[in-house]
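Hi U.,

Before I forget, here's the chain from the pilot set. I'm dumping it here mostly so it's searchable later in email.
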Amino acid sequence: MIEALVFYMFASVLIASGVMVITARNSVHSVLFLILAFFNAAGLFVLLGAEFVAMILVIVYVGAVAVLFLFVVMMLDVGRVNIKEGLVSYLPIGGLVGLALLAELVWLYWTWEFSAGAVQNRLAPISADAGVTNTHALGQILYTQNVYLFQTAGLILLVAMIGAIVLTLRTRPGVRKQNVSDQVSRRPADAMEIQQVETGAGVQ
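Structure:
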């Protein structure tokens, strides 16, 4: 009974914070609600016995990704007016994409079938006699059975990061840029000049 109450508490707060992420008017508040959603998702993973996944969720997503989002949002100072520009023109396309995704989810739900041993595997995915920890089992799944999919996901994230940098990179004229190769190859003779000043001929 206590586990059920804790589950519903984490789940309800997670759903509410997820809704607030997309409905909050302030971008900083959206990121803070996202951090709250990550914490509640970590709590659900702890209830499922996946303590390693919960720890990674808190360390990586809350400690790095969400904080990075918060810094970027605060540095860019994204205004509400700029976000809503062009909303009406893109609304039909966005609505069609959303309906297509909803139809796919409904179709997936109605055609979902469980195998004969799915219930037993879900209740006890690892045999107690195997002597395998949760972290070891997760590593076996990621780095042995699904290693190519794992590496492909990493490449997709790398390409997405490079694409985001290229799209947001802006060149401004008149800005002095640093040339590292010229600085490294500079000699003392190029940076300073020794003048022999006679006695009494200096600046008065």
